Amino acid sequence: MRSQHPSAAAYDRWIAPRPSLVIMQPTTLCNLDCSYCYLPERMRRREMNVEMAAAVASSIADQPVDDVVEVCWHGGEPLATDRDHMIGLWKQFEALRHAGRVVHSLQTNATLINDSWCKLITAYDVKVGISLDGPMHLNRERVDRAGRQSFDRAMAGIERLRAHGIDFSMIAVVDPSRAAAAEVLDFATELGASAVGINMEEREGINLDRPLPTTTTAREFWADAIAWSLEHPDTEVRELERIASYLRLIRMGDRDWWESHRFDPLPTVTFNGDVVLLSPELAGIKDGNYGDFIAGNVRHQSIGEILASANRLRYVAEFLDGLNRCSATCGFFDFCRGAQAGNRYFENGRFDTTETNYCRVSRQELVKALVETTPN
Ligand code: SF4
Q1: Start and end of every Radical SAM core domain (predicted)?
Q2: Would you state the pLDDT for residue 264?
Q3: Which residues form ligand 1's pocket by a CB distance below 6 Å?
């Protein structure tokens, strides 16, 4: 039962009651030092112990049996942890995985993938997402701590995945003033990625100083991506698939389903069991107004218990106000549904604002590009 508070009704309106995605931080360490990275502790090795994973598994076991929860191993770089350590964490979910209630995924820079990891990924049926920004010249931000390019190491890791027949998707961080959509998407397709996600470069975490994409270059990028996609219907581009789903539902008169779709509370469980909600980028951030964004710790409470009082957290309540404002004022809300909490905070310093550069370049310009390319 949600705690009674002015924001309780707004929480129930906008946020799903249970997570379908839980993000786990097996280690804070990353072996790379990408210039746009938002992770504050990526140089330190602090590892999640098995007790935390067991507590999360127990929380998921409390959910209704027909919920399927994706447990996404993020990081740091998740494969920077020891293989045996990861086995210990994954074992905690085995009963749920075999019952079809948990699927594992991991988001990796691919540089540490070897045959040994591939065998483990296959054994635990883990969905793999690769972080790579396109061909070599678009990856010059992805360097190690000695400043060396990581591209060749990533390609070697991907080659191992292919040798083991492991399917993978790719997420590219894109600066649309430098990267043409066709170049990124051609590269992903030739690599063998089953789906591609495009993240326009964002201001978040400790990555606060870099120039942001402009609306002009973003619209050109999306127009290019739409044209490419029409010629390559077999490759799924996550952002285009989202808008296509929206349009399909509207055309079928199923607007209610889209509108009833609520935000995942998106619990991110850090190495020490702390839980941060709404945006993984808030983990490890401290702020004079909001404190540390921690909603609870899985050692002391289940995720369900943490979510039951989440509406009382200042940043959550503010985000709900922001969604209400977006809903009342923005012509893109129908499709957008309010974008991400973290972008509001890192760009505007608050959660109850509306527009961000992120939503302009990732949502609004996508819609405008589609309108421009659609014949009357
Ligand atoms: S486009 Fe921006 S302002 Fe409009 S609904 Fe989305 S987040 Fe809110």
Answers
A1: 14-251
A2: 94
A3: 326, 330, 332-333, 336, 338-339, 354-355, 359, 363-364
Q: Ligand 1 mean position to 361 CA, how many Å?
A: 11
| H/E run at residue 226 | helix 215-231
For residue 1, pLDDT over 60 is answered with no
Q: Which architecture characterizes domain 17-302 according to CATH? A: Alpha-Beta Barrel (3.20)
CA of 344, closest atom in ligand 1: 7
How many angstroms separate the alpha carbon of residue 104 from the centre of ligand 1? Answer: 31
Alpha-carbon torsion angle 41, 122, 129, 348, nearest 10: -40
pLDDT of residue 270: 95
pLDDT in tens, 261-280: 789 999 999 999 999 999 99
How far does residue 365's CA lie from ligand 1's centre (Å)? 11
What is the position in ligand 1's atom list of the atom closest to the CA of 333? 5
Element (H, E) at 152: helix 151-163
* Confidence at residue 376, expressed as pLDDT on a 0 to 100 scale: 59
What residue spans define the domains of the chain?
17-302
